[in-house]
């Protein structure tokens, strides 16, 4: 950490529609950091809504995505995939394929990337080729001159399989005598694209786990004792389905192998993760690899690293000495593109009559196919104050495509269970669900801290007013067949920071200002946010800034996952701009007959003092630069005051990002159809940079949450292991007709932890939606929906079961 | 199941139904594939592919394509002239090529996106004689003689179409991959109904999938463009 120049006073706290609650704290700010910004109200471009700078390119079709990259002589690749869910590849005959006149290269995959690995590789079934563990697993790839040629050539690759027993059903896979997906215990190492599984966890058959944890690692307190102390206990079992990311642009690359440099255009959330994995796989120095992501069509957590498809494409390009395009098709994307694991969660919560919690015990299992990542316990671990918490999570392997991080991994599942149990607890206690949360959603210190409870308290308050929560009636009050219900649920997320986040800012003599970073814009609008931050520092407008991102030729960029991009990269941009500003003013001061300290940058001018009249235009001032350009490059510094203790290696900042969502639904008890009428979402994400883009992202989180809650379900044929709905007709994703009225309220939450104090919104916006809907459905009908998606058939079944039970 | 089974069964089921006799087509030589496709083109007509088609995005209706007397083209490359955004473009294509493929691959016009390649997402929406169609479900040959308008042709003289302008102002594009299709659907709506209701916009975009969940802003933007009176103003109706 850079040397500190002592303490600086910063304002922290909340600014919300109609008020604020702020206080001043002292923070140790390193001497090379600019002074903290005041509140957004006192800034000119940061915190104001700006249309994205790349909007015109997107609406005219001029934006170039990886899928659109066309290079001279570019070949088209197809992947040969296993039709079997579990098999040993005996032989691969590529001679006919190679003989096809249009074939340019063939490559057989040597190692499988992604998913879990045997702890002891010697336990692997003896085989020359990687063992097949799911339908659609890549075997080889070919490249040919045209897409049509590639299709013909791929059909000529002949693969002999020895078919092995398999299992795709979660409960079947848990049985001791189930076919083994892996012949031994497994590990899932962390990759460039994300964290792996907790190491050295016991594994019985296909069941890896349980890992037993609490809020900061080990279980907290003693849940047995906690339940003994409880005056009331609520318990239920919840189930959630596998969801596929279904980004509209599929995974894919255009790989261009040249002896001097390997260039890979990739649809990725992490240009640096792709470069790092390429360096590792191909033994190249990072300096010989360039990864470019100019525009990308969505990833939602699934697009990190090079992937098997990327490795194949690079091999093909190398063999053919030509650029190779390899984009997955829609079916491949559903099967191979990653997914959110399923979950079964047995949740038990004990409380005193006053609402205070005495015990939380969650036992969960789920399947991420051949990958780990099915844990659903983080919400139960971290949301509410409770002295006794035990979370037991297991992964169950099945012969299905590997899971990948998906927008707040584990959290929508976990919230669906916990927030319904809290709802039920409130009802049993005769408390309003918001009043109960006011009681238990508190910062506490029992060896760790809940995060963000102060913001959520305010969010409950202003959200309930906006939503008119007071009109909520007791569950099942409506008499007619169509019943209306209101529900609420909360979000929790964390301040992940990546220190590998750098920006270069350049000022040229003609007044051009450029920001350069390898960071990629995955649709969140980071381009525009960077322009705003730099414009603020230099007294300009966002449109005056040229932003170049998504290219590893520029300074290292943070991978966009875990809602960490804005919080990691904008301080680097501001700090670089601040340095450019300092040197710029030093250059022009003499010609203005002033000392640099007397100058300021505002409204596109260099001003002497604060006198707006006596300035010279920015561009004229730039013409006085002593050299053609001023360049400064900066990286993200540590948080002021350091990261959260107790979470080593995670760079987790103190505090968090959360939100509260209110949902109004109608349930047609004759058809079972749930209609979401309205959602009020109140969120915080540090200092908002561009409220317009934030609102879009929150809309998106809510709509993905509704889609998850009501429609999405990957269906595998248990007798063939094949996905039955790898398309957009039968894999149902929410469309225009299912969009409710959404109102977004955004808090400004100042924490004084970096030079921009910004945070992210991607994950927290989608965490509570399914839970809020389920609570609203309960309020409408008096019946708990414990399984996602809440399809009409499931609603009717639950209603019928409730009627039967009541008789 | 054959070892290519994962990749193209779907596509074939829509476009090459009669290739699928026994599922053991791994080593089918190209020639017999072409024969099958020709049979398909000449015999089955496009209506076989229309079952999964959504409102406001239908494959082009083809006059006289079904039944006897249909002209047989191919199986090799056939020169055709398409009228794209008011310009004549001559390309040599296989009769099986979709309009989306020809636009993106042969003409290098990548504004039109392909997402599902089977009529389920409307990302590939273009206009034929002013009517939105899914270009992934339309054979390029069936677009001959019709005015094709793509997202690249919607703006005129450097000025954005009012719907495009409103999309920018209202932040109606996040990742932007659905956006060209959305824009084409919404601009077509205003062309035929300059005063749409929110419900009309929902209906017009009901086939347009957006995974980023940008719909609220799409609705907002389209209604704003309508209020500004964009309907038909810069209509690139085959211009
Ligand atoms: S409808 Fe044509 S690509 Fe989806
Ligand atoms: S903006 Fe990303 S799919 Fe619509």
TrEMBL record, chain A:
PANTHER family registered for this protein in UniProt: ALDEHYDE OXIDASE 1-RELATED (PTHR11908:SF132), XANTHINE DEHYDROGENASE (PTHR11908)
Region named Disordered: 1-36, 178-221
Entry annotated with the keyword Lipoprotein: no
Molecular functions (GO terms): iron ion binding; oxidoreductase activity
Coiled coil: none
Record key words, sorted: Molybdenum, Oxidoreductase
Name of the featured protein: Periplasmic aromatic aldehyde oxidoreductase, molybdenum binding subunit YagR
One Pfam family named in its UniProt record: MoCoBD_2
Organism of origin: Chondromyces apiculatus DSM 436
UniProtKB/TrEMBL annotation, chain B:
Region (Disordered), start-end ranges: 1-28
Boundaries of every 2Fe-2S ferredoxin-type domain copy: 78-154
PROSITE patterns: 2FE2S_FER_1, 2FE2S_FER_2, TAT
Entry annotated with the keyword Transferase: no
Regions of compositional bias (Basic and acidic residues) in chain numbering: 7-17
UniProt cross-references to SUPFAM superfamilies, sorted A to Z: 2Fe-2S ferredoxin-like, CO dehydrogenase ISP C-domain like
PANTHER family, per the entry: BLR6218 PROTEIN, OXIDOREDUCTASE WITH IRON-SULFUR SUBUNIT
Residues passing through the membrane, by range: none
Keywords: 2Fe-2S, Iron, Iron-sulfur, Metal-binding, Oxidoreductase
Protein known as: Periplasmic aromatic aldehyde oxidoreductase, iron-sulfur subunit YagT
Keyword ATP-binding among record annotations: no
GO terms, molecular function: 2 iron, 2 sulfur cluster binding; metal ion binding; oxidoreductase activity
InterPro entries named among the record's database cross-references: 2Fe-2S-bd (IPR002888), 2Fe-2S-bd_dom_sf (IPR036884), 2Fe-2S_ferredoxin-like_sf (IPR036010), 2Fe-2S_ferredoxin-type (IPR001041), 2Fe2S_fd_BS (IPR006058), Beta-grasp_dom_sf (IPR012675), Diverse_Oxidoreductases (IPR051452), TAT_signal (IPR006311)
Superkingdom of origin: Bacteria
């Amino acid at each position: 950490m850079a040397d500190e120049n002592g303490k600086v006073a910063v304002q922290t706290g909340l600014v919300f529609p109609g008020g604020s609650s702020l206080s001043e704290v002292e923070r140790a700010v390193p001497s090379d950091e600019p002074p903290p910004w005041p509140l957004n109200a006192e800034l000119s471009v940061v915190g104001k809504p700006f249309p994205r700078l790349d909007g015109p390119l997107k609406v005219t079709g001029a934006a170039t995505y990886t899928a659109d990259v066309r290079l001279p002589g570019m070949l088209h690749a197809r992947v040969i995939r296993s039709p079997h869910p579990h098999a040993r590849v005996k032989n691969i005959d590529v001679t006919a394929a190679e003989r096809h006149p249009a074939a340019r290269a063939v490559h057989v995959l040597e190692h499988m990337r992604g998913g879990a690995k045997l702890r002891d590789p010697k336990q692997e079934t003896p085989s020359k080729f990687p063992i097949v563990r799911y339908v659609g697993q890549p075997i080889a790839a070919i490249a040919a001159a045209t897409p049509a040629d590639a299709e013909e050539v791929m059909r000529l690759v002949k693969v002999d399989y020895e078919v092995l027993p398999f299992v795709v059903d979660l409960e079947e896979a848990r049985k001791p005598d189930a076919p083994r997906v892996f012949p031994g215990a497994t590990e899932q190492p962390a990759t460039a694209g994300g964290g792996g599984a907790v190491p050295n966890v016991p594994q019985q058959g296909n069941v890896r786990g349980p890992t037993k944890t609490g809020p900061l690692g080990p279980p907290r307190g003693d849940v047995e004792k906690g339940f003994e102390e409880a005056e009331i206990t609520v318990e239920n079992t919840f189930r959630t389905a596998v969801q596929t990311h279904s980004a509209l642009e599929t995974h894919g690359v255009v790989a261009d192998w040249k002896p001097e440099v390997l260039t890979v255009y990739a649809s990725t959330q992490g240009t640096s993760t792709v470069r790092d994995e390429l360096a590792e796989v191909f033994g190249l120095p990072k300096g010989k690899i360039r990864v470019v992501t100019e525009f990308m069509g969505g990833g939602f957590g699934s697009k990190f690293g090079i992937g098997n498809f990327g490795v194949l494409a690079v091999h093909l390009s190398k063999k053919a000495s030509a650029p190779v395009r390899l984009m997955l098709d829609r079916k491949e994307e559903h099967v191979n593109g990653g997914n959110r694991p399923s979950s079964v969660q047995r949740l038990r919560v004990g409380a005193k009559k006053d609402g205070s919690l005495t015990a939380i015990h969650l036992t969960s299992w789920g399947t991420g196919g051949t990958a780990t990542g099915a844990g659903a316990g983080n919400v139960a671990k971290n949301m509410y104050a409770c002295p006794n918490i035990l979370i037991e999570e297991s992964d169950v392997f099945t012969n299905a495509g590997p899971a990948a991080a998906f927008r707040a991994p584990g959290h929508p599942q976990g919230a669906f269970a916990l927030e319904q149990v809290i709802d039920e607890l409130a009802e049993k206690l005769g408390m309003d669900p918001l009043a109960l949360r006011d009681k238990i959603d508190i910062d506490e210190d029992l060896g760790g801290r809940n995060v963000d409870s102060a913001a959520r308290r305010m969010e409950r308050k202003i959200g309930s007013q906006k939503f008119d929560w007071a009109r909520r009636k007791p569950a099942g009050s409506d008499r007619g067949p169509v019943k209306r219900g209101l529900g609420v649920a909360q979000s929790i997320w964390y301040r992940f920071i990546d220190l590998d986040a750098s920006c270069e800012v350049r000022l040229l003599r003609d007044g051009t200002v450029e920001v350069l970073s390898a960071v990629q814009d995955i649709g969140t609008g980071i381009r525009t946010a960077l322009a705003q931050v730099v414009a603020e520092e230099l007294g300009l407008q966002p449109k005056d800034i040229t932003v170049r991102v998504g290219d590893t030729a520029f300074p290292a960029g943070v991978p966009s996952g875990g809602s960490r991009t804005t919080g990691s990269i904008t301080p680097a941009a501001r700090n670089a701009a601040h340095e450019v500003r300092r040197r710029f003013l030093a250059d022009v001061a003499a010609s203005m007959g002033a000392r640099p300290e007397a100058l300021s940058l505002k409204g596109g001018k260099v001003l002497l003092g604060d006198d707006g009249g006596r300035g010279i235009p920015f561009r004229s001032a730039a013409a006085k630069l002593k050299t053609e350009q001023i360049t400064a490059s900066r990286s993200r510094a540590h948080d002021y005051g350091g990261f959260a203790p107790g979470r080593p290696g995670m760079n987790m900042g103190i505090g968090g990002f959360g939100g509260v969502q209110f949902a109004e639904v109608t349930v047609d008890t004759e058809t079972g159809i749930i209609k979401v009428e309205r959602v009020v979402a109140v969120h915080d994400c540090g200092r908002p940079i561009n409220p317009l883009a934030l609102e879009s992202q929150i809309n998106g989180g809510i709509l993905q949450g509704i889609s998850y809650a009501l429609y999405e379900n990957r269906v595998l044929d248990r007798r063939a292991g094949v996905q039955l709905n790898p398309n957009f007709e039968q894999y149902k994703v929410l469309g225009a007709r299912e969009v409710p009225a959404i109102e977004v309220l955004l808090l400004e939450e100042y924490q004084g932890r970096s030079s921009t104090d910004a945070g992210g919104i991607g994950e927290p916006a989608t965490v509570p939606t399914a839970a809020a809907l389920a609570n609203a459905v309960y309020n409408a009908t008096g019946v708990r929906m414990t399984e996602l998606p809440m399809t009409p058939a499931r609603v009717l079944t639950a209603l019928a079961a409730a009627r039967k039970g009541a008789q | 199941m054959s070892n290519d089974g994962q990749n193209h069964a779907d596509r074939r089921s829509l476009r090459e139904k009669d290739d699928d006799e026994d599922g053991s087509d791994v080593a089918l030589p190209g020639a017999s594939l072409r024969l099958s496709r020709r049979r398909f083109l000449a015999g089955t007509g496009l209506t076989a592919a229309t079952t999964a088609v959504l409102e406001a995005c239908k494959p082009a209706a083809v006059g006289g394509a079904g039944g006897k007397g249909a002209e047989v083209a191919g199986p090799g490359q056939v020169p055709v002239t398409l009228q794209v955004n008011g310009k004549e473009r001559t390309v040599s294509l296989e009769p099986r090529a979709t309009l989306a493929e020809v636009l993106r691959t042969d003409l290098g016009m990548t504004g039109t996106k392909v997402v599902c390649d089977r009529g389920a997402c409307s990302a590939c929406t273009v206009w034929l004689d002013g009517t939105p169609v899914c270009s992934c479900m339309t054979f390029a040959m069936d677009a001959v003689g019709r005015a094709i308008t793509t997202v690249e042709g919607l703006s005129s003289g450097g000025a954005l179409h009012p719907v495009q302008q409103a999309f920018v102002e209202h932040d109606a594009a996040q990742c932007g991959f659905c956006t060209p299709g959305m824009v084409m659907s919404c601009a077509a709506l205003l062309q035929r109904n300059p005063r749409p209701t929110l419900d009309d916009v929902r209906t017009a975009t009901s086939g347009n999938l957006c995974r980023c969940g940008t719909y609220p802003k799409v609705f907002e933007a389209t209604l704003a463009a309508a209020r500004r009176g964009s309907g038909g103003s810069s209509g690139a109706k085959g211009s």
